[in-house]
Amino acid sequence: MRPDGVLTTVDQEPEHQQSARQAFREAGFAGNRARFIPGPGHWTCCPRLADSGYDLVFCDGDRQEYQDYLAESLRLLRPLEAWSPSKASSRTDAPWTPGPQPTEVLRLRELVRAVRESQELVSSLLPVGDGLLCAVKR
Ligand SMILES: C[S@@+](CC[C@H](N)C(=O)[O-])C[C@H]1O[C@@H](n2cnc3c(N)ncnc32)[C@H](O)[C@@H]1O
């Protein structure tokens, strides 16, 4: 982050928020460099976040909600900034697997397709860990 940047983090587990708060403090960040919002992501917190107020959105929560986060992220991001859900390719690259696919896999495939076909995004799927889907807002 740039020196005047502020990180906003949303998590529904208070003890995870507490761990994050402690980690930032131990890393030497001043208290006013991070904002901690408790609660489930998309329906309580995201509407409170300012339009075009963010340089980067990183999603690492419930993968079945990533489509909702994508729509919210496009509202939150400044043009030419990045959006990145984690582990977006996980198990999505084996469509030949016989039998019904788990809902999570189907949702992630829809997400990858929506990002790839979006006129607002330039995307890349990085071979990092389980796969990292990244996109820059045009
Ligand atoms: C994989 S962990 C995040 C790990 C973190 N990114 C890291 O690298 O240490 C997923 C987190 O998302 C939170 N989470 C899951 N679903 C959520 C939701 N709908 N709203 C808010 N937080 C959620 C969980 O409480 C958990 O802390």
TrEMBL record:
UniProt keyword S-adenosyl-L-methionine, yes or no: yes
Keywords: Methyltransferase, S-adenosyl-L-methionine, Transferase
The species this protein was found in: Streptomyces prasinosporus
Taxonomy, superkingdom: Bacteria
Protein name (Swiss-Prot/TrEMBL): Methyltransferase
Residue ranges of coiled coil: none
